[in-house]
Protein: Putative manganese efflux pump MntP
Amino acid sequence: MNFLSLVLLGIGLAMDASCVSMAKGMTMEKSQRFRYALSLGLAFGFFQGFMPFLGWWAGSYFQDFITSIDHWIAFLLLGIIGFHMIKEALHPEENEEATVLNFKTILLLSIATSIDALAVGISFAFLKVDIMSAVSIIGITTFVLSFISVYIGNRLGDMLEKYAGILGGTILIFIGLKILIEHLFA
Structure:
């Protein structure tokens, strides 16, 4: 697999993470942008790079099991987080820290958006891909796109004001549905 193919694959894998970064960026204050852009970028970049490595390592041993449940895991994690965002947007007085991203949330989002990368990693084992180059390119691409997406989302959040949390949560739920539908009906 050549460099351009890996970059394009990295962009494709980073789309879910970028959308989630944009959705989370909609709900945060400007003073939090850089910190969370860096946090989300690093977490998403790491997991998007680590999961293909893990899939490559697992190879064909667990291929059938992983591909049979990966979409359900992503759907559930994104759905739960999305509903939580909508609830926080509709009832901000119940949670004063609605826009704060904690370690647990970042971890769950990172795993949910990188499960498809695990399956890609399994295919890398069969294609004899240079795994270190592949995971580096995928991770860096995801970091850059997620970092930028937080800023784009924050700009959109300023324009949408009070509806940003509802829109962001809805986006997460639809990303989860998209993943589920793609795997069930592909």
